[in-house]
Design brief:
single chain; 338 residues; Rossmann fold; 2 domains; two-stranded parallel ribbon; 9 strands
Length: 338
């Protein structure tokens, strides 16, 4: 298999082979030196084999510049020699969801076992995934999705519509919505800002963001804040007497969990009082304060200028999808064009 990218179809093919030949299966994953994300593809396949408990399945990685045209002289002889090199002998099984498996069995003396040739069990095609990863995201192997998923954080001062916007954005782009950990923590424990409560919020927010890596089947994670908000609040000049300097380990962890895009909401909508806001009837941080945080840590950000909620949502959707295209264009690769 080329697994460009790895899909649920590749997983099911391996599972069928595992059931067909419980004494052992060799999966040959083929990449070429100039192809994108080769190591990530192989790592995802190996992780899927491990996660599925296929203990007798072994993956071999063939990374070489190989002829792609079956009509070229010596093409099938090349593959005969390669397969013999991987240990294929007469009487072995060749399992494939493509008809070329029949030819490979013929030239090696093996027996051909087709699997879902007409895609009646799973209609996924890697070509379609490469052409439109967002539309076919659920077809991508879960272990590989993390490399193509886009994380967007709504960022800015309190009472600027971050929660409402993040929820609506997640709905529009078919994303997972991630809440702000500070809110349920402060609502269910002690509603006060102390070094202890801030460290608890830090730990909870970090765990929530790491947990999001286990979410599958949707192309986006939309966050109603992230650890850089915790950094920003810790750096508030008015809080320094209580909290002290922002811990360097917090900054390090925030960078490690950095989002692909930060959408900054401006303070051009009415302020709404909230028991969890500590600035009374005003916002504690200016727009410039939060964009300065983005600049300080070199975060990829866009300021949403409009006060109209629908316009703001449209701007957010456009920016999120533009960022996603930049991430997924790495697999927009035409193998047939070699």
């Amino acid at each position: 298999m080329t697994a460009m990218p790895p899909t649920t179809g590749h997983l099911q093919l391996m599972q069928f082979a595992d059931q067909l030949s419980p004494e052992g299966v060799v999966v040959i994953a083929c990449t070429q030196p100039h192809e994108p994300m080769a190591e990530e593809r192989i790592a995802a396949l190996r992780a899927a084999i491990r996660h599925q408990g296929m203990q007798t399945v072994r993956l071999e990685h063939l990374d070489a510049s190989l002829e792609q045209d079956p009509a070229s002289p010596g093409f099938w002889e090349m593959w005969r020699d390669l397969l013999h090199g991987f240990g294929v002998t007469a009487g072995d099984y060749i399992v494939s969801s493509e008809l070329y498996g029949r030819k490979l069995a013929e030239i090696t003396g093996a027996e051909f076992f087709p699997y879902d040739i007409d895609r009646s069990l799973n209609a996924v095609k890697a070509t379609l995934v490469r052409e439109d990863p967002e539309a076919h995201f659920a077809d991508i192997l879960p272990e590989f999705q993390q490399h193509l998923r886009t994380t967007v954080t709504i960022f800015g001062a309190e009472s600027t519509g971050k929660t409402t916007l993040s929820r609506r954005l997640a709905q529009e782009v078919n994303g997972h919505w991630l809440f702000e950990y500070a809110r349920p923590y402060l609502e269910t424990t002690v509603n006060e800002i102390t070094p202890r409560s801030m460290r608890a919020i830090w730990r909870g927010q970090a765990a929530l963001q790491r947990h999001a890596r286990n979410l599958h089947d949707r192309p986006f994670v939309i966050q109603d804040t992230d650890l850089f908000s915790t950094v920003g609040y810790w750096q508030f000049p008015a809080w320094q007497d209580v909290l002290g300097p922002c811990p360097e380990n917090l900054r390090v962890e925030a960078r490690a969990l950095q989002s692909d895009l930060y959408l900054v909401t401006r303070q051009n909508i009415p302020f709404e009082p909230d028991p969890l806001r500590y600035g009374g009837d005003t916002r504690e941080g200016s727009d410039d304060y939060w964009t300065d945080v983005c600049e300080q840590y070199a975060l990829p950000y866009l300021v949403l200028e409009s006060s109209d909620r629908e316009v703001r949502l449209t701007e957010a959707v456009t920016a999120a999808r533009r960022t996603a295209r930049r991430r997924t264009e790495r697999i927009a690769y035409d193998r047939r064009g070699l």
